[in-house]
Structures are given as C-alpha cells and as structure tokens.
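Pasting as-is:
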Amino acid sequence: MLNSRVDKVPAVSAAGPMRDRIVGRGPLAPVILRLAGPVVLMMYLQGAYNIIDTIWVGRLLGNLALAGIASGGFVLWVIFGLTNLSAMGTSAMVARRIGEGDQVAAEVTATRGLAYALALSLVVGAALWVLTPALFQAMGTSQEVTQRGAGYLRVILAGCPLIFLSFQILRTFQAAGDTVTPMWLMAATLLINTVLDPVFMLGLGGLPAMGLPGAALATVVARLAFVVLGLRLLAGKKRIGGGDASSGHWIGRLRPSVVEGAIGLRPEAWRRWDGALLVGMMKIGLPMAVSQTLFPAVYMVITRLPASYGPEYVAALRIGHTVEGVSFFLALGFSVAAATCIGQNLGAGKPGRAARSGWLAAGMVAGALAVFGLCFFLLSKGIASVFTADPAVVRAAALYLEILAVSQAFMGLEIVLGGAFAGAGDTVPPMAIFVPLNVARVPMAYALTGPAGMGVSGVWWAISGSTILKGLAIGAWFLRGRWKEQKV
C-alpha cells in the first residue's frame, strides 16, 4: 500500500476555489478547459523555443554543432523521462491529498518530493556523466560530432539537479489545480534561454565565446531562474494569475500578478526522511520513466529504415514529427487536466466523477485530433511545402502525413488516458501497453517494408498502426475501472 500518510498530520480543508470546482457538482468541461489551456500554451511555447534554439545553433555555429546538439539532445530527452521517477509520483500524491482535504499532508509531500528529486538528480547526473563516452559511441557519431555533443552534454549534466527540480515544481503546481503559474514560469525560462543563447555562444558583452557549450549554459541558467522563482512562490504559498479561479473564463487568470496560492511548502518536513514516501513515489514514477526513456531509443533504431530509402525520407520523418507536435501538445495539455481531476476526485471519494473527467478530456481531444488528421490528409502536400521546396521531400512528407492522419484521434486517447492513469497513481497499465507496442514498431516496420512489399510506407504504417493499437488498448483498460481502487 502506497499510502504513507506523512507524519499523521491532521486533516484540514485544502485551500483554493479551483479544488472546489474540480471535485464539486458543477460541469466538468469548463474545469478541464481551464486546466488544459495554459498547459497547451506552455507546450507550444516550448515547441517554438526548440525551433528558435535550432536556428541559433545552425546559423551561428554550423551543421556540426547542429549534429552535436541533436545527439546530446537524445540524452537530454532521457533526463526528461527520468524526472518522472519523482515528479509523477509526487503529482499523484499531492492531488490525492488535496482531494481528501488534507492540505498539510499535501504540502509535506510536495516538500519532501523536492528533496528526493534533488537526490535522484545527483545519481542520474553522475551516472550519465560517466557514461557519456559510451553513449556517443552507441550512437555512432563522428569524432567531430562527438566532441561537440559531449561538450554540450557535460554542461547540461552539471545542471541536472535544476532540470529535476523544475519538473518537480511544475508538477506540484499542476497537481494543485494551478496550471497558469507553470506556464508563466516556462515563458520566462524560454525568454531567458532565447536571449542568452547568442550571448554565451558568441561571447557578446565581453564574455568568452563558448560555442555549443554556451547553448547548454543558457539552458542551465534559464532552468535556474525557473527553480528560484518557483521555490519562492511555493515558499510563500503564492501563485501567478490575478483572476478569481472560481469565476470567468480561464483566460482571465493569465494576468501575471502574484496572488494567494493553493499549495505551499513545509520547511520542517526537510528534517525527516520518509522512506515509504520515496518508495511510493518511485513505484508510480518508474513505469512512466521506463516508457518515456525507451520511446526515443525506438526512434533511433527505426530511423535507419527510411534512411536506407534516401535522405528525403529522413527529412519527411522530421517534418512529420514537427507537424504532429501541433496535435501532440494539445493532447498533452488535456492529459495534465485529466490527471489533476482524477487525482483530486479520487481523494474526495468521487470515482464516478473521476471517470467522467477522464473520458470527457479524452473525447474532447480525440474529436479535435480527428479534425487535425483530416487536415493532415487533405492538405498534406501544402503542409510539407511549408518546410521545403524540394519536390522529393514534399512527396515523401505528404505520404507520411496522409498515413499519420489515420491515427491522430487514437493518439489523443493514448496520451490523455495515459495521463489519467498517472493521476490515479496507476502507471503500470500504460507501461504494459506502451512499451511492448513501441518496441513492436521495429519488427513491424521491417516486416511491412520487406516481406509485405510496402516499401517505405511500411515504416509509416508501423508507426501509425501501433498508435491505433495503443489508443484502443488503453481505452479498454481504462474502461475496466480498476484504477479507481489504487491507493497512493
């Protein structure tokens, strides 16, 4: 049983009108939209920054630097996945305690979660630092790319604690029903990162020119700003957003003013180690970490197949990923909303409302992504032409987008219901579905391209077909309802 009720603290009512809307009797759709909207915007900001960062590196440092940041970025993706070891478990527990009305326990859990995230980050950072040469050897990069990528990665690894803490802070606010504060913190972080990139890379303002490690340093400094600002808000039990969370549209909450928050920290909780709490967090977070760190590894392997048909198909894969980000980020925002609603409603003893919130969020996203998929199919060549003027790449990307379109609604189910399971603290079912089907993409792709005689389109159908299977499987598992019995 994962429910280690921290320090047997007395139960008190959780502050904040947003909690009342989540677990009350009112309509769920406005609550889900209010929670999801800022997360979607935050993810789109992150996507925009990734494009800007790539432009800075490519234009200022050249193609070798781009290859270096791409190879180091794979390891960075692994770090992001490993933050789930602590962040996902903390999020589920904090949401459950708030739903139960136990504010003190929620804040003690959040405080200790930060301490455990820091400890885990030191272990992860040290391990990856030692493994850096082996990681680049496994990727098969050239000596020049390895040198640049390793220099970039070493700086990132030095800031590994800041990455873990920033995700921990973000998840803590979201679990309390506050998705606006993380959005503003991320916006500030991305602005700082964008400004500092050329300063550190080129050595502007009298600073030494650092090249690619300067891009990494900009990322670390920006994450430091996120952590400092986030901790100050949590320590003072504050949040960003001046509107009343109980009335009006969620856009009204986007005014960047500091007001009273629904979650804070308990400094006295730092003084006591809670092994049961740490184990509980890890049990929830480990399956998610496994799923998210394995995903990029599968793509590293599967990319070799389209590459064998020509460079235009590798470019098509990149274009397809970029375009799919529009629908992926939307689904991710609603997955956070579903996780928060389910966690708090289970804590409040309302499993029926929890289930309705999960299905409603999934249905809203599946409908929206079905429309996106129709656009991908009908406008495939026009969309591809935005990214390139090369006719061969346009044809290759259009084919990928047309096949990708078939699975968009199912991707919505996969992501949102995966978040719903996480909100319930029941993360083994998503892992049991996602890991095998993601790995199966490799043999499926080889079988469809070779024996089935489908050529490169077999790769695209392996990706799209496995997504359909994941969406159907997690929907069926969620329908069983055993996640309602999960104790956290």
